[in-house]
Amino acid sequence: MTLKLSLFGTQCNDNRVLLSCSGSIQDNMTIEDGVEIIICNNAIIECRNLTLGRNSLLRIESGSLIVASGCVLTLGENSRLDARGGTLNLTGARCNLKSGGTLLLSDFPVKGGILAGGWAAENDSLINSEDYHAFQHMRSYLDAPICKVFDGTEFKGRWDMDRAYPQWFADAGCDDWSVPINKAIALKTTGDVFLPAGLYYVKHTILVTMGIRLIGENGTQEVKPGLNPVCSTVLEPRPTVVKLMPPIPSNVARPSISTGFSHGVVVAVNVVDSFVQTDDISLDKKPAIGNTKYYWKRAYPCPGTAIENIMILNKWNYSAEAKAPAAIKEYCIGMPFLRGIFVAGGARIESVLFDGLWQSILWQSNYCDCKTLARCTLHRPGCNNFEINANCLPVELNNDGSPKIESEYAIDMGTLGDALVFHGNALHDPEFTKGVCLRQCHGGVVDANIINCSLEIFDSNGLSVTGNHFEGISPRIYINNSVVNIDSNYFERCENASIYISRVFPNVPMIRLSNNIFQWQARYQDARTSQEYADFVEAMSHKFGYDVVMPADINVEISNCYRTYNNSKVTPTGVPYGILTATETPVGDNYKVEENTKFNSVSFLASCQSRVMPVNKVLIPNSSAHNINSIGLYPFLLNMSHGNWVGKSGIYRYKYLIIWSDERRIYTCGTGNVSLRDFMFDGGNTVVRRSFKDTDTTGTILINVSGYDEMTGLNFLVHLYRGYQSQNGGAIEWEESIVPVAGSRVIYDNGMCASGFAWKKIGAQPAEIPFNDGVTGIDYHGQNVDVYSTKSIDFTIGEWRVGDRVYNVGTDDSWTMKVRK
After folding, report:
1. Which SS3 state, helix, strand or coil, does residue 245 take?
2. Which of 269, 719, 733, 764 is at a distance of 20 to 30 A from 143, taking alpha carbons?
3. How many helices (H) and strands (E) does the chain have?
4. pTM (2 decimals)?
């Protein structure tokens, strides 16, 4: 072997050459296999076209290697290019590292040029070959620390590394990390792109390609002792152009903002090149995104694309004058109309925290399976999403002068697709968002989430909503034309229905509700000041709506669905009562909601198990209650440690009716052969209660159910009447509260409601009405009953159904059984 390198280097042996002096290597030189060339002693070596054979080593221990512009440095299969000790300058040049070769780098960045690895080191045109998969095994390898190692370098072919890092491409003090992140993604092509813990300012859309897992540092970090920890890896969007306008106290001013985020999207997954908008876009108004079904780059992508352990934090603050009202400063946090992540195709988004965004996640409106959103958290949907005019003032205002917010679904899971997973997410602070939307999902699960906003489901089948926690100010689940199983969820009662089922003719929704809890939570007990207490009481006074709203033509199975009451101090969590339902009926182009009296009158049984069929037909499985006349209600006065009285101060008296079948007028018969009975307190049938507003506030009233045994059962309807009179005298005002007892042994009256069932005013003092006395027991089955009575029943009292039967259990031998025909 002849080596002319010896002209300026030292040839140690046939296979190892030391280049310790600066100089140039002969052009078009080819070196045999297995040779080691080592540049040392800070030598500056220049070469033109140089080719090394297989299993070679080119090492820069110190100094630099400069490949002339327009020339090519080639290393054969399984070779190593070690530039950890010096600089590899490829400006205008190209380096081919053939299959099995390894590039080793440190904090000496490669300068410019093209690095071609794997198959591209053989022939760039192989990418267009019909036999593309046959040469995917041809790859080269990269080993580098987490620092800048490339300076303007382009890549071709297949490069493998455990992870790619944006730090490889970033300058110190980088103010737009979207560029180095996108370069790391392009280099990795498939696998992990890792963002170590830190704050990453971004000004343009990050483009995640199919097969990439964009992953941040797991967990949180404590920035300063005593402060809440922050997410380890944070992406913070920043504007490119800002036109500042001074705040105007009589209104809300916002700067005119332009960004490099295509369609307002911070991170886009598997999108076509045309998705990217090369010019900055204005966020003065909602950015149009168009028909998203045409945006995917790879149709029906294979599973594996993911975004994990990242926070997208929209908190860039623009100036507001110190004297500006707080209402103005509220609208100076974060950029408007930002979307966190847009996904085209199946992907997994996991452990991502979204803060201050107009829309956190948007999936394309095209068929794609395997959508997974897991363990993500949404905080503080942005409050500054309103269109502005040339003076940077809101185009539309609400009646109170505040800007009219453009709401959007915080999470839009797109249209069509199977195997959807929505698991373990937490959606907080829903004031400026429409919640979560699922469309045409045919097989999926929404489970173990905290959802403080609406979950809207359209045209879906085989969907399970299980083990979720719902609270907040919005309707919780809205279902339209779907087949859904809603099981083991917790709903905190709000002003609207917790579950709203709707349909479009001729579709008939089929819903199964099981093991769900609808809890009336007395949050006023958490108040720290008198004003907070009053605010809590006012808010809770509006939370007595229906639990479920459904159309008249529907198939719904209900089992073990209960309303519970919790005043935060005394009530155990498992105190069950029946749920309340309403019916949605069309009126012209709109709908009206009316109480479903057929269900609610038997809610104490139907909540345990029932089937609601078209025209509100309610079928109840077999259930029995005997010794029904032994049941009574007995009040006890509780002190303030069990909850304050939140009704008016005054004198109260109570009457009650225990109902087993209201339509048939079957009630518990008390002493004196009456059904309407009085509460008796110590000292008489009245009691004084004082409001939470008074300094000498009194406590709630515990109403205990007594007289039950194993034959009686604890499922019945209690019709409570309450008379209020001022302590100064005057007329008595009567109210009523109807409580479906479904196993509970207690009822609490806090002045506002009886165990979460509102007190409503009635016109006059209640009076005894005709009822079927003599009844001792009742069996329920379907829509009929079997009644056990010591007296002959008069079927004209109440409304009896054909097939109802009455059995004689008295001493009158003149009859045995009567059947309603």
Report:
1. coil
2. 269
3. 5, 76
4. 0.90
